[in-house]
Queue: 4 jobs
Job 1
Amino acid sequence: MTAPPAILPFDAATVLERHRELLTNSSRRRAAGWGGLTGVLLLAMFSVWWLDISIRQILPGLGELAKFVGLMIPPSTGGHLPLFVRSMLETLAIAFLGTLIAACLAAPLSLIAAANTTPSLLLRFAVRRALDTIRGIDTLIWALVFVGVVGLGPFAGILAIAVSDTGSLGKLFSEAIESTQSRQRETVIASGGGAALAIRFGLMPQVLPVIASQILYFFESNTRSATIIGIVGAGGIGLQLSEQIRTYNFDQVALIVLLILVTVAAIDWISGMLRSAMIGRNQATSRI
Amino acid sequence: MIAGIPSLPQHQLERLRVGYEREVVRRRRRVLAVLGTLFVLVLAASRCGEVDIANLLHHLSGLTSYFGRIIPTLRMTHFSADIADWYWNFSGWLKLLFDTVLTAYLATLIGTLGAGLLASVAAANLAPNAIVRWCVKRLFEFCRTVPDLVFALLFVSAFGLGPLAGVLAIGIHSFGTLGKLFIEVIENIDMKPIDGVRSAGGSFATAVRFGALPQVLPILASYSLLRFEINVRASSIIGFVGAGGIGQDLFVAIRKFYYSDVSAILLMIIVAVSIIDLATERVRHRLAPIETLA
């Protein structure tokens, strides 16, 4: 009989000693962690001090807020239901037309901004910076500007969404165009087609599903932003909402918020179905 | 020499051609149907949205002259004087811009802490309680669907004018969006490290600390930084309803047609936002390779 194989004596202390370096964090990493945490906290304390936020302001405010919430229940139409529904439809119209116009404007611009369709570096650079600038300005600021230009009402909202989304959609479209394969376009050119035909038959079939799904996604998100541009007078449900908040009709505020929640959920659902119908189930979940 | 191109017999070709044409007609019909629906929707929406092309054309010159007017007059001969004139309130705006960034910072912090706490309570793999999970998810959904400006309006009425209302409004909105992302991240972690800690005798708390936290922390931090970028934009307009920051001055400038002020403030916001975007982007790339998540 042979002896059983020797087993190393198990001793927690020696094992720990042998692998100390693996088992403990290096002091530098530890210092970085604690330092980062302290920095975050100090900056937070500084911000509270700088912005002059005090507990004396918070506590009565919370009391007020609780009172508001109490007034919100039960939600009530206040006899304005037709008006609210019409404003909600107006909001949807703003989001729909705004997105559509933005898509129409962004399509040609994105062809200029994409590296594989526009060889001129200067032109590309100029269009890209213009799109960046448009995108850098918030929709609400555009809404305020357009209220000044075309007057109060939903038309200003449509223009605001159209302009500000031209920037974002133009960038996304041009990225989609740049990620296409050049073979198809080369084939069209090689068999005698011009640049326009190459774009129609070599490029569009590749980018159209991506672009369509991006447009749908923007329509969803614009439904949300169209609910607030009314606050600056650019039409839609936001106008009613800010009026009711300013006049302390909180039961009607609650109703409008519910209306917004339901509408947004419905639009998300519809556009989710359209998207999966267009690009197939498995890709539908990964947006953009 | 002519290479023989293989050709199908006539009757087979005919069948293929008919099939092809039928397919083309079918697709054309579908495109026409989609376009028709779109056209009807556009008409309905234009009625609803009071689209008035004549009005637009009438005011189009106003629009171009608007942008012409907000561009300041900078003459080479008195360049510095013109700059000083354009940015007459530079220190005041800079302070407001600083307020704006700090508002975004505090809001992001509130949102991250709240979302992190609730998401780890609600994630199905850490604390499997279906009711809590459902409630927390609905809460997140509510907080992110109600626009931050609506919260801001409410909070301005409750807490008074000032940055506190803005911090809370943007904080609640971030709480909703981050919470949804955090739950997804936590539910997608690798459970093996946690099992490892548990089987080595660790408690639930140590399992979360050494098994789960190292996996999720970089991703959560990365999402929070992305949210910070978005919040800086949000807090720059939250002043429109009186909730502090540079938005207040911008609102006044646009409403009262102080043309050169509009461009001065807008330029400051754009520059600040781009600087913050660039800085956080670098940190994010070092933390975790997520790009397209928003």
Job 2
Amino acid sequence: MTIGLEHYLVLSAILFSIGLYGALAKHNAIVILMSIEIMLSAVNIALAAFSRYIVPIELTGQIFALFAMAIAAAETAVGLAIIIAIYRNKETIDANKIDLMKW
Amino acid sequence: MGQVISFWIFAIAIIGAALGVVLLKNVFRAAILLITCFLGVAGIFILLSADFLAAMQILIYVGAISILVILAIMLTRELSIGSPSNKFKIPAVIIAAVFCSGIIWAVLNTNWQVSNVAPTAVTTAGLADKLFGKEGYLLPVEIIPTVLLATILGAIVLVKDKNK
């Protein structure tokens, strides 16, 4: 038995779904951000797998994964800064209680 | 054979750690499991012969992002409430399961044009060629530092104490 492209893609799909569940069903804003990080990692696995099995010489998928990593780092920094700013103002990071802009 | 065994070890470690992140009540333990998950993803990158990507995964995710997350957890002192699920727990499970089965169905029913060429052994030189060479991705490479600069400034402005 060998490991093929499908194994990596199925692993990536399962990881993405776990992150999706966490992002949808959690109160704590930091846990939601962590779930989004899991989803980004899943996408990076899929990109690297496509790069390895479809275009082994071109490395295009790895370039995309590198850009995704840079954007993920930026997203985490701004997201956590927003969470800390909200905590200073409202003394909570419960995503259900942060409803200032709710209509 | 060794590749098969290490794939399954990494896959089980990643899935288990990710489940722990979304299911554990203690946020700090969830963050530690998130680091485990990132390390497993780095191992998967090595199996996919993406050595530079694995190094970057460890540097950026394990080194920087997890420290940021742990710092934010300690600064917000919400360890007592933990991470309970909200009222959308059941719909979220259903949505995630439907999404997962849809993607897996699509993956298994697509005829992938898998190439039999051996992958590049050392990817760093090839990646540098792609990023900085002619007909490469030079414009995105120039845009990324601008984004990072804007991020640094935005993060500083957001967490600055306005009363001082």
Job 3
Amino acid sequence: MIFTIYAIVLLIFVVLATILVYHMFRYNIRGNMHILAASVFILVSLLIIVATIISIIAA
Amino acid sequence: MAHKVQTKEIVSGVRVVSRPGEQIEKVYRRHWANFLPYIFMTLAMFIPVFLVPWLLDSVGFISSATDQQYLNMIVGSYVLFIWSFLVMSWVNYYYDIFIVTNERILDAELKTFFTREVGELNLARLQNVEVKIVGFLETLLRFGDVHIRTAGQHPDFVFDKVPHPSVIANELLEIHERLTGQAYGDESLGERSMMTERKSFREVLKDEGLVTQTDIARAAAEQAKTGKRLGEALVDLGMVKRRDIVDTIGQQYNLPTVDLTHYGFNPAVVALISESTARRAHAIAISSNGQVVTVAIPHPRQAPEVLPELRAQGLDAAFVIADSQEIDMAINQNYPIKKTETNGGFKNGSIDPADTSPEEEGPME
């Protein structure tokens, strides 16, 4: 049950994250800051998600 | 350093199709201090992450492993939300861009994720640039607003909260001068003025002893209140005469001046500039030798508005400075052009210089 709820939360997050990354690439003017920003965003998000799943299992 | 606009850059970036030969000169972003409130908001949003589990635990609300699991999931989701908020704020801050090309100024602003506004200003219409640094943080970190005033009744174009606004203002004026200079050809005003480091309008006024620093300060205050140009404010306050302003602009740009009050205009020459252009640019043709047309304008910034029309007729232009009121009066008196008069001065598509030389028709100062 708890993982079903969390899966729904993650689904909403994935939609939001996709829009966010799309904007980073769509409106970039010059430089590679968008690639760096998108990478950091995805990596940190994955870290938070993994940490949450581990904490749920550990509890 | 300028670089060629890649169509992809502009289309992708601000959804504006680039023009042939257009180059990006500068790209400005808001000062990083504008992102600070979002960082503080994010930090504040983190407080419940530590506070709520501690409170729930201390009142004994978490009694089973399942409760703890749900709490961990809620906290994890909330942290994910805070992180997304921070990144969204960064995108909102970072993707508000001011682009200056050699032809236009573009203000691309991401209002919301699905609303992006792009303001555009033709650099040739730039009339005045003002810098406003208001506030403690702005003064300390050196950021503020750059107000770009344009010809006509349009509202100011504002680069808000940009770092080093004075430097940006100078760069804008330099790019504008280069554009204006190109309009003058090789012996251009822009090139000459850049080579000689042209004095500012205020400096020339002071050097000529026409005004004091106090007068300038009073006029600047009036200017801020009414939105008028500095010269107009000085005239309105009775500190200088209109003629002095004309002479000062002429001296500033090393251009001759002319008094149009008793000038004998040749309709054939006047007709070289269409009425719409003349009224828009506050410009009137006063003489021509068949190749070069002498055009009276109130300020060199008006030159780029007139030049394309003359170049389209295979003519070049020499500019002289005249009082804007005198020019407007001359436009009202000489337009619309009567056809019979228009043909009178032409000889094989050109105008007899003997009929139209400025030395004979009107006083040059």
Job 4
Amino acid sequence: MQNSLKRIWALLGVTAAIGAVAATSAVASHKAGPTIVIWTDANRAASVTKVANAWAASKGANIQVVTKDFGSIETALGTVASADAPDVVVAAHDWTGQLAANGLVEPLFPSKTVAAQFPPYTLDAFSYGTAVKKLYGIPVQIENIALLVNTKIAKVPSTFAQLETEALAAKKKNHLSFGICVQQGSGGDAYHMYPFFSGLGGYVFGVNKAGNLNPKDVGVANPTFLKNSKLIDKWNKEGLINSKTDYSVCDSAFTKSQTPFWITGPWAVSDIQKAGVSFKAVQVPPIAKASVPFLGVNGMMVTKFATTHNVDAAAKDLVVNYFSTPSAQTQLAAAGGRAPANVKARATDPILAQFGRAGKGGVPMPNIPQMSSVWSDLGQAWVRSTKGAGAMPAARSFKGAARAISYKIG
Amino acid sequence: MSTATTPTLSVEPPPFRPSLIARGIAFFSGSVGFAIKIALLCASNALAVWAIYVLITHSRWPAVVVLTVATVLIDLVYLAPRRKTLPLKFLIPGTVFLIGFQIIPILFTINVALSNYSTGHILTQGQAIAAIKINSLSPPANGRQYDIAPARDSSGKLVLIMHDETGGKVYVGTPKGLTELPKGDVKLGATGQPTAAKGYTIITGAELFTLDQQLRDFKVPTTGDAAIQPQGTAIAVELKPTLRYDSKRNVFIRITDGTVFHDNGLGSFVSGREELEPGWKTYVGFRNFSQIIHNPLVRKPFLTIFLWTFVFAASTVFFSFAVGLFLAIALDKRGLRFQRLYRSVLVIPWAIPGFLSLLVWAGLLNDDFGVVNNLFGIHVPWLFGGNVFSWLPFISWPRIAVILVSVWLTTPYFFLVSMGSLQSIPSELTEAARVDGGGAWQVFRRVTLPLLLVAVAPLMIASFAFNFNNFNNVYLLTGGGPYNGASSIAGNTDILISYTYKLAIASGKGSDYGLASAVAIIIFILVAGISAISFWKTKSLENVR
């Protein structure tokens, strides 16, 4: 008797708990007006919130900013449940192909006045399509690497020969194992080697008639580049570049004024300034052709989930007509520590302006998904050919890389 | 032992005190235990209700049914009279965790392995068709863009007041078509956007956003099948479809040249080699598995990589065990000073997060700048080098470096395990062996080691299985490299799992999760097979008892 009474009490308790939870979860908070969910990285969360809220306040909308690890946004978009999905995301331009091929982002149509405020290549960087090319993102900030020159111990070189002479002199003087510091490491780094690659006449993908990148045209071992690749073997022999250098080696050598030359991006600036080294950021002098860097453009995209959440129009207004404005761009780019994409929103920071000039004529990193087949092999080709003793002749190394890349793309 | 039973009559027998466990059981079987049980049940029910609520909002009906039934059953089992369901009470928690953490992930992996889930194939077919339709819209040759303002006409119907960006003319757009308005009737804002129009009420504020669905479907037809479509609430663009979907035949037809794109059964509409993006997720049977066999990218380097993976895992376990055991024996000496300190220091490699120490090691072993080479004044190409001896293939410096660091990371584990097992070996046995005239080495070889292996061998097998898939140790140290062959796709130190990652996630056209899952299943079978054989072999070890 005692036992069954206990059980009845227990049943009552359990049902009460169920009731309580059901009641609390059913009362979902509901705000007036549409709520736009934005995914951003931690660095830009504050400024995205501020800018988006300024827009939302005037329009009667709500903004919910969710902070994510930047690199995870691209993959998370493909797996997130619709209810938790974002309507707007901060994105890197080289995700465009992958996201558009997956059907996860919406094409955007800025007005001609808005489009005219952006350098054509920034819009191109966010455009993708195998048949019809479409814009999928509004550029916000631009970044690229440059040749940093320690102006105390070297002159800013105007020709590559000058750069080579100065670099080798410093190498000899300070007993270094490299002339120009550029990070590679055992994993290779095609991004940081791109100025040399483009200077020797290399390109990653050709362009087809429709103006789209053509994954069947891989220019990693094109005839011009192969002809110039003897220079790589020469640089390896004299130790101008060394594939064993990595970021920390360069950071320490440059901040201690051991090497006057470091090819790197704006992320290194704070370290150098802390060390009190005075420097200038310029483009690598032309080799056989202009030694342009890869360009990375970050921006905002509208996801297909905006349609399911019925905030498509609001999200497009926010991204196309508000995040594109000069004042919004200045704030967003400043939070990322880069130059804004909108030409009317000039970077006030003189060093960022130098980096901007160093990126002149640069090539946006290819945004087609096939690029994932290129990074490692192109990087490894450099590693093989610039590892000092026992290095492989560049012509053979890059031909091999081209073969492997075409093989992988299929 | 017989001497210990000498009677001690003078001492009174101690009062009866039940053991700690018995007292614990007595304590928890009363109302305390009952209250804990109810609290746990309430928590599990609350969790279930929450999950059911979420599942209902996502319309996952089968999952809702399964979860409801399971919850009710669990409640019944724990609230029913004691005897009937007693075994179940013990079995259920384990079973729930087994299903949640083992069976569901395995079923999910198999499910993905049988599908084409990859870049360009993550939507459903319906979503893909909708996306292709949107992607096929293209501005016609002299298509126009308009600054728009949604408005209501006198009868309250939704219309668009439109300002042509290039021509400067103003129009009202309805689902019937464009009608030009007199310029004086429409006021334009600074950005060219209509702010007022005679005879129409411009919609502003929050109401604008309630029109989302309507604006998306709003089309102002122009010539042919082109139409002006709003993009947001401020811009409209003239767009013309380039593809037409024939739902009866389930094909897309290109309007310009009549090319027909068929469903190829693999989640794409294709015509010849041309493929429409995006595709959709669908089941492709054993295609991923047959691809593994037929794809030269997998087939060609497979044997070398498999051999190296095996050598890597086996030698990591062997050397870690050897070093760990040596240290355990060395520090086992009684009366050793600072014994605890030594032991704590030796556990450090295990206590530091592996990904951190691996990156540190990558720096230490750097061929030109690493501390290791600089300290000893040597020039060993740890990370970039080739074969150690030109006449001996397979053994390369990077491979040695990878094993070295893995041993450093794994030794503390075997040190701890061996230390524990050594103490459990009865000293009578070793003493007896000594009395029988065995030397130190003989005693170790014939008595200590066999007894130790009984306890440690299963752990070695587990460690082998773990190292077989030790992605971090390889990827963070060498990135799988170096790539010594000109066109080698697999690096010198790539193990199966890191090569799979390169092949399926960072290759071809983006990520191929289907292929990755298929390889994962094959690796699982390999590891399970090797472990099963090893366990079967270790049974013979137990004969020493």
